[in-house]
Structure formats: C-alpha cells, structure tokens
Amino acid sequence: MIGTLGRAGGRVDFHNKNRKKEMGLEKDWDFDQIIDRSNTGSMKWEPGVLKEKFGKGRERLLPLWVADMDFKSPTVVRQAMEKRLAHQVYGYTIQDQDYNKALISWYQRRHQWDIKNNWVLTTPGIVPAVNYFIQRFSKPGDKVLIQTPVYYPFAQSIVTNGRRILENPLKIEEGRFLMDFEDLTNKVKDPRVKVAVLCSPHNPVGRVWTREELERFGNICIENNVLILADEIHCDLIMPGSKHISFQGISREFAMNSIAGVAASKTFNLAGLQQSSLIIPNDDLYNEFSIYLETLGIGPRGSGTLLGAIATQAAYNGAELWLEDLLLYLNENYIYLKTTLEDQLPGVKVHDLEGTYLAWADFRPLGFSSEKIIQILEEEAGVALDHGDWFGGDGAGFERFNIACPRSILKKAIESVTAAFGKYL
Q: Per DSSP, what are the bridge partners of residue 121?
C-alpha cells in the first residue's frame, strides 16, 4: 500500500521499512483489519436498527449502508482524546482557538481555500445545521431546492420544518450524472424558492462537480436571490483523477451568498462525536445565523462538543498520511466492486466514483422492479444497502454501496449479491 506525505512531500512506500525508519514514520493502521462493532451502539450494525429500517427477520443483514467507516480512526485522534479524558474534569468548555487554526490550515493546504478565523461557526453536525439553515432563511410554505437523487435527510429536513421540496433532478448523459441547468433556471424563478442545498461532492451519485458546473449553478441561484448552503462534508474523500473545488473559493460573490458546511466526521470516521463547522464569510449572514442559534440555546458563536473539537483538531494536524493511504484503499475497493458487479451481472452499471466512499449502482438493466431488486438483496443476498428510492423517486432501481470497510467484508457482500442475482440470469 502506498501513502503520501501531502502535496509537497512525495510518497512513502509502506513496504520499505528502511525508508519509513529514515523518515520517522510508522504505519500504525490496517484497513484490512476487521473490527467487531457489535454491542457498541453502532447504527450501522445494531440488529435493532436493522430490524427497524429493513424489517423483521433482517436483523442480521451484512450492512453496507450507513455512511460511516468500519475502520479505526487515526491513532493521533484517540491519543488526543485520551489525554483530555485523563484530566477527569469535563466541565463547560470554550472553543479552543487552535481548533480554528487547524481547520484553516487544513483547507488551505488540501483545497487552496482561504478561510478567515471570524468566518467559522461550529455546529453539532451538518444535518442539524441544514435544519437550522432552513428554519432561519425560509418560512413555512417556502420551497427548498435540492438536486435528486440526493442524501435523504435533506428532504426530511425540508418536510419536518414545514417547507416544500423543489426537486431539480440530475440527468444522465453518456452514463454520467450532470446538473440540469435548464430545469434549474426555470424552477428558481419561482419567488417562493428561498434557499438551495448543494451537495458537493454529491451523495449518492459520487460526482465531484467541476468549476464550470459550480459557477453555472451559483450564478443561476444568486441571480434569483436564492441563498445556498453548500454541504461539502465529503470534500476530503476525492478519488484519483478528480479535484474538489470549494464553492466559496470560486469568487467573492459566491462566498457572500452562501454558507458552507464542513466536518472531519466522514474523513476520519468521527461522526458519533457530533462536530461540524459552518463557513460564513458574509458578516450579516454570520451574525444573523449566530443570533438564531443562540435562540436555540446553541452558542454564543455556535457549539460543537468537547471531544469532537479535540478529535477534529488532532486529525487535521496529524492524520494527513492516514487519509492519503485511506484514499488509495477506498479506490481499490471501488475498482473491485465495479469490476465484479459489471462482469458478473451484465447490464448493471456502477457509476464512476469521483468522490465520497459511496458507490452508486444501476440495477435497472436487469429488468426487475425496484421492489424485486430490494427483495433479492435483502432476502437472498442478505445485505443491507441504501436503496435508491430513499434518495427520491428518480433513484428507484439504484443501490448505494458503502465501500468503506475491509476488503474481505466487501468481497463477502459482493459475492453474495452476484450469486443471488445470478440465479435469475
């Protein structure tokens, strides 16, 4: 397995022990290691959750659904939390300014995105932040634009807050998902459209939007006074050949008309720590949103969690090499998934994975209904996936595979899937 030291440092061959020793590096992680997550309250693996989500009798499905990883988080993260826990006093805590420094440095060197200290507002997760955004910048009955098929908590947030979903469905051209700008232009003319949620990189289709695509999306929304929340939680999980472009980094106009959501949770498997950050360069928007969070008891200047902040800071400062190695491992998992499914189930298409660790597979060419596809996957293959129709009606017949697991687990799942469908082909 090959890892990198970052953009300026070259590569380290982890099989070359002498080279590692010379550089003072030791690889203390093993993505092939199987971690028993039972009895840890894991949403992904907990039988009670599987029963609730997939139905009675399906408590033991092999889970490749919830978007967290079955890998240990970086050792530096654990060590930083253990050091703080050893203090044994966990009272009210203010945000350490070194947290912002770590975040700012990370996004500058990884994404060439220059963030200022007074733009950062912490929140207890991106999904809560999406809800707060919808509540503050729209009113009941207003429309919120999303690009389906898309991460389904977006739709849930819109509906539970009494707003209306406005879909700008992605389209497929030459086997690739693209934004439908003609449809977008027509729909945002409606004065009831107040805000839009941009998923970048896109979950579940795996697109990393180009600068041109982001520019067209941003210009159309801003021209129609639509405020944008750019969910960039997967921005560090970029596959070879693609590059994430920060929406706010494109222009001052974009920065002043948007809020960006970022977190280390997907990157370093820290989702349970409930820590995220909003980047808000517009002073008026920042103050307005900050005051609103205070009315909810969140603040001042937002709020995360004690261990979430410590873990995030440690990861940004000390786990870049771990991430580089992870990306290579995930890409190999993706290649295995795509090659095996497409070879053994002719007609199935696994869309190109440019970003995230969530592969989007089209089972429609097999000729089964979406209900039959789900039945075969759950009852015969024994796997739990995120089904396409969860992401919107235009996702029916697709399945989302979480490939952030040891390859042996992925192989077991894929072998079971191909065997189950193979009986019908």
A: 278
Residue 186: in which H helix or E strand, if any? helix 181-187
Tokens of 158: 């819109």
Q: How far apart are CA 13 and CA 1, in angstroms?
A: 7
Q: How far is CA 229 from CA 70, 127, 258, in A?
A: 29, 12, 6
Residue type, 375: Q
Contact 102, 316 (CB under 8 A): yes
**How high is the pLDDT of residue 31?**
98
Measure Cα distances from 20 to 12, 16, 76, 156, 166 in Å. 7, 6, 18, 48, 53
Alpha helices in 86-125 (DSSP H): 97-111
> Which domains does the chain carry?
2-72+320-422 (3.90.1150.10), 93-318 (3.40.640.10)
Cβ 128 vs Cβ 160: under 8 Å: no
Which of 236, 240, 246 minimizes the C-alpha distance to 268?
Answer: 236
Q: How many CB atoms lie within 10 A of CB 180?
A: 15
Per residue in 198-218, pLDDT tens?
A: 999 999 999 999 999 999 999
H helical segments located in 296-369: 306-318, 320-344
Confidence at residue 25, expressed as pLDDT on a 0 to 100 scale? 55
As beta bridge partners, residue 279 has 120, 260
Residues in the chain: 425
Q: Tell me whether strands 11-13 and 120-123 are parallel, antiparallel or unpaired.
A: unpaired
Question: What is the rounded average pLDDT for all residues in the chain?
Answer: 93
Rounded to an integer, the average pLDDT of 257-278 is 97
More confident residue, 93 or 98: 98
Q: Measured between alpha carbons, how far is 230 from 3 in angstroms, rounded to an integer?
A: 29
Question: Integer distance in angstroms from the first to the last C-alpha of the chain?
Answer: 37
Residue 400 β-bridge partners: 360, 386
Cis upstream peptide for 149 (omega within 30°): yes
Of 22-31, 56-65, 67-76, 117-126, which gets the smallest average pLDDT?
Answer: 22-31
Q: For residue range 306-345, what is the model confidence (pLDDT) as tens digits?
A: 999 999 999 999 999 999 999 999 999 999 999 999 999 9
